[in-house]
Amino acid sequence: MGKVVLYGLAVALAMPGVLTSAQAAHQRFHLLYTFHGPDGGSPVAAPILDQDGNLYGTTEGGGPLNKGTMYKLAPDGNETLLADFAQHHSGDKPAAQLWRDAHGNLFGTTFETALRGRAVSHGTVFEITASGREKVLHRFSKDDPAGYAPLGGVIGDGAGNLYGTAAFGGPKHGGTVFKIAPDGAMTVLHAFHNRGGDGAEPTGSLTPDADGDLYGTVERGGAAGGGAVFKIAADGRESLVFSFGAWRGDDRGASASARLRLRQVRLRQSRRRIRRGAARSSATGSSIWSRPTSSCASGTATPTSACSR
Predict the structure, then answer these.
(1) Cα 283 to the chain's mean position, in Å?
(2) I want to staple 200 with a disulfide (CB 3.0 to 4.6 A). Which of 154, 174, 212, 241 is the partner?
(3) Counting runs of H as helices and runs of E as strands, what totals does the chain give?
């Protein structure tokens, strides 16, 4: 069996964030890069890997105005800042994994776009071309038929279409699964009902299979109310693959915007707890690591492969 190299992130420690790799057979961990703030901070989403061994990812914070960055990390450890979201119109604080096509173009999502402290949109889908040019492919709003708040990333197919999820809004107010054609046309493949049995609030990225079906998760609803794994067939039919048990959270009666703000607060609280734990640890700090058991594949195939966790 050949050598399997795993890549992961350490987030919100005593330092803004680090990139690490591990050789699975011997459990040896190596620090690849440390973010210092101007070049990025809090790399929440896992990086993706290309055929040349370069890693591509985003940081939720960092940059001149702490609005997030996009980076490339070469095999020799040299980091290149591909985008500073303080200078771009693609949105603020990208927190989902990127997808890279066969031409080297990078696609991703941002959660919100703010101007002078006020929200002017509720998320974007963007592209950074191989030459570094920025494109906003779609800008969401609260009255958008495609929904709003794309908390997961996008994936693509061989025809140039992009697929993703919006956590809230849409025709039935429970979020959507959407498709963006190469010409920019937006299509809603499925609209979730905020009180329906098909679930609501899809918050993650989609996973395709060889037949063109798409799989994802919803945070709420399903047969028992605790969320579900769903499938969108190639012909557009939606079905539940698995429903999780009933969930008893404290925000079931809240509006979508309130739940969104609550999720952000909880995330910040978790990060503060991690920082406090790191400050009490040894001088070398610590890392958060998830060790997958499968082999790594090319970073252009699927943005959610186990090797890039």
Answers:
(1) 31
(2) 174
(3) 1, 22
